[in-house]
Amino acid sequence: MIIDDMNLSDSWVSLEFSTDEEIPVFVKFRPHLQNFKDTGVFNWRMDVIWAYNSPNESLLPREIDLDLMEQVEEALADMLELDNQTILAFSFTGENERWWAWYTTDIDIAGERLNAALSQFDQLPVTINAESDPDWEEYVGVLEDFA
Predict the structure, then answer these.
(1) Measured between alpha carbons, how far is 112 from 57 in angstroms, rounded to an integer?
(2) Residues 6+ apart with CB under 8 A from 15
(3) Nearest 5°: phi and psi at 98?
(4) Do strands 44-51 and 126-132 pair parallel, antiparallel, or not at all (unpaired)?
(5) Looking at residue 10, what is its pLDDT?
(6) Rounded to whole angstroms, how far apart are CA atoms 3 and 109?
(7) Mind listing the pLDDT tens digit for each residue in 31-79?
(8) Other C-beta atoms within 10 Å of 89: how many?
(9) CA-CA distance, 24 to 48, in Å (whole number)?
(10) Is 46:130 a contact under the CB 8 Å cutoff?
(11) 3-state secondary structure 44-96
(12) Is the whole-model pTM more than 0.70?
């Protein structure tokens, strides 16, 4: 299967919701990734989590942090999605963290590309976790909750 020939839709849904504690959270997700899920080769989810300290009770990032997060997301997408080897499925921003969820065919290659993309930035407050998620349970949960 040649995944770099697959069409990766750049269509996104973005919305805001509130937690039970009335804390705002923003979610952004791609609603049309079924073709990637159905390949059966995107078996790993790489979570990139950026912890920040909100200046107020909203628990949202400062504007300067938000701008840098957008630059980082763009750099990651440019490197990781180059040949559809790793794709961004969704992100959440709120409660003092931004969580990007990437699905990948090869966690080692994704890690190498992530490090290359992040090397252009000063050290960032991010942690990276890899989880086996062959059924895309997290993504399906996002669709069930927000689509």
Answers:
(1) 36
(2) 26, 27, 146
(3) -115, 130
(4) antiparallel
(5) 82
(6) 15
(7) 999 999 999 999 999 999 999 999 999 999 999 999 999 999 999 999 9
(8) 22
(9) 20
(10) yes
(11) EEEEEEEECCCCCCCCCCCHHHHHHHHHHHHHHHHHHCCCCCEEEEEEEEECC
(12) yes
